[in-house]
Amino acid sequence: MVPLAHILALSVILFGLGAAGFVFRRNIITIFMCIELMLNAVNLAFIGFSRYLGNLDGQIFVFFVIVVAAAEAAVGLAIIIAVYRNRGSLSIDDFDSMKL
Amino acid sequence: MATGSNMPLLLLAILAKVGVVLLVLLTTVAYAVWLERKVVARIQSRWGPYLVGPHGLLQPVADALKIFFKEDIVPTEVDRVVYCLAPFLAFSLALLSISVIPFGESVTIGGATIHFQITDLNVGLLFVFAVTSLGVYGVALAGWSSNSKYSLLGGLRSSAQMISYELSLGLGVVGVVMLAGSLSLREIVEHQSGLWNVFVQPVGFLIYFTAAVAETNRIPFDLPEGESELVGGFHTEYSSFKFAMFFMAEYANIVTVSCLATLLFFGGWLGPVFGPPLLRALLPVCWFCLKVFCFLFLYIWIRGTLPRFRYDQLMAFGWKFLLPLGLLNVLVTSLVLAWRST
Amino acid sequence: MAPLFYIFAVLAILAALSVVLQRTPVYSALSLIVVLCSLAVVYLLLGAEFLAVIQVIIYAGAIMVLFVLVIMLLNARQETPSDRSRLARWLGAPLLLVFLGELLFAVWERFPAATTRAAALPDAGPRAVGALLFRNYVLPFEVTSILILVAVLGAVVLAKKRL
User: Fold this and answer.
1) ipTM confidence score
2) Domain ranges within chain C, ordered by starting residue
C-alpha cells in the first residue's frame, strides 16, 4: 500500500511543474496545457484521498473536474483560434494592447 | 492476486497466452488481406492472387518479403521523431485491444482452468473504447509529421471522422450494456445464452456496425485515404515497413471490431456444443472464429459493392443522423427496461 | 503493486518536465498524453478502475486530440525564448523549488507515512460510481450537462470565420 504522503507528493510536484510552465512559457497553447497538468495533479490528490477515506465521493469530484476541463478546453481553444485570426501570433508577448 | 509460490507459473501462463493470441492475430491480419483481395476480385469478375501457392495462399508471405526488402525512404523535411513514432503507435494500439476479447468458455482440463481470454477486466468494453480513442493519434500525427499537403489534409479529415463516429460507436452499445448490466465482455456474452442481442437491439447493431466501418476508415467511409481523392491520405509519404504497419494496423482494427460485434450482438462463442470434453472446450472457439470470419466477409463485401461518401456527407451522416438515432435507441431501451422492472 | 506506482510516478514526473521544457508545442502535447496515461495507471493502482478508463477515453483520447488538432491547424512553431525580464528568469527556478519544498513539507507533516492508515478498499466499479452519481450527485450532473451544451455553442460561435 502506497503511503498517502507519497501520492500527495506526486500531486504536489505535478502541480508545481504545471504552475512553473504556466508562468514561464510564452506560447499560449503550451500555457493551456500546463493548466491541464495542474488540473490532473488535483485529480490525483482527490483519488488519493478517496482511497484513504474509503468512500467514492472523491472520485465523483474527479468525474466533474474532467467534465469541466473538457468544456474549458473546448472554449479556450476556440478563443485561441479567434485570437490567432486577429493577431497572427501565438506568443503572449504580443497580446499586450491592454497594457498601460 | 496470486500467492508468491504461484506467481512465476501465473506469469508464464499469461505470457504463453499473449504469445499464442498475438501469433493468431498476426496470421489472421495477413490472411485477411488475402481474403480481401480474393473476395473483391471475385466481386469484380476476376481471379485475384492465383500464382503464388495454391489459390494464392502464399501471397501474404510474398508480400511480407517484398515489404522487408523495399527501400525505407524518409523525406528530408519530416519531423523525424513523430514520423517514426506514428506507425508504431498505430500498430501497437491496434494489437492492444485484443487482450480483453474472450474467445471461448473457461474450461477445466485435468486440474487446471483455462480462460480463453488474456484478462477479464470488469470495464473490458470501456478499455476497448479507450484504445480506439488513442488510435486517432496514429493517424493525426502521421498526417502532421509528413509535412505534405495531402498528408495533412488526409490526417485532419481522418482524425475528425474517427472522433465523430466514436460517439455513435459508444451509443450503439449502451443498449447492450443496459441489458447485460455489466461492462465485462464475458458477462455480456453469458447474458446472451437465451437470445442473441441482435434480435433485442437491432437498431443498436446497425448503429454500431456503421460507426465501426467509419472508425476503421473503410469504404464507404474512406475518403481520407482514397487514392483518387487524396493520393494516399495520411500515409502518402510512408514506404516499406512503416507503411506495412499502417496497413496491418487497419486490418487489426477490422478484426478487433468484428470480434466486438460478435461478442456484443451475436452471442460470442455460444453455439451447439457436444461430444467429449476436448471437443467441448474447442467448439466454442470454433463458433467464435466462424462468426468473426462472417463479419470480415461482410466488411469486404461492403467494400467491393458500395461507392464512397463525400466528406461533408460523411460528417453530416455521423452527427445529424447516427448520433440522434443512437440517443433515441438508448432512450427507448431504458424506457422499456424501466417499464419491465415495475 | 507499490513498485509499479513508483515506476509510473517517475514516468509522470519526467513527462511533466518534458511538457514544461519542450520548445515544440506538439512534443509538449505528446508528453502531456504520456502524463495522462501514467496517471490513469496510478488511478488503477489506487482502486479507481472506472475513473482510470474514463481518464484515458476523455482526457487523453478526446481533450488532447482537440489540443493536437488545434496545434496542427494553427501551425504552432517552435517557441523563441522571451527577452522580457531577466529577473524572472534568475529568480524563477529557486522560487519554484521553495514553493514545492514548502508544500511537500506541509504534506509530510500532516500525513506521516507511519501513522496514516488506509480505510477498506471501496468497490469503485461502474455500478458503484453510477449509483452515487445518479442518486446523491444528480443535480451537479444535470448542471454539468448544461455546462457542456454552453461550451459546445460557445466553441462553435467563437471559432467561426463569419457569424
Assistant:
1) 0.93
2) 1-77, 122-163
